[in-house]
Amino acid sequence: xxxxxxxxxxxxxxxxxxxxxxxxxxxxxxxxxxxxxxxxxxxxxxxxxxxxxx
Length: 54
Hints:
Elements: H1 3-12, H2 25-37, H3 48-53
């Protein structure tokens, strides 16, 4: 990831340049990943029975 792309992703998350001093790169990448996963729809959600079979 380039610096301009990192700054763009930060702005898309609503993080100001001032706030970048308070956050780590890893935290911002995790936030971006979570944002990308927000719209995911699953056909089936695992139940306790599914976990027990595993």
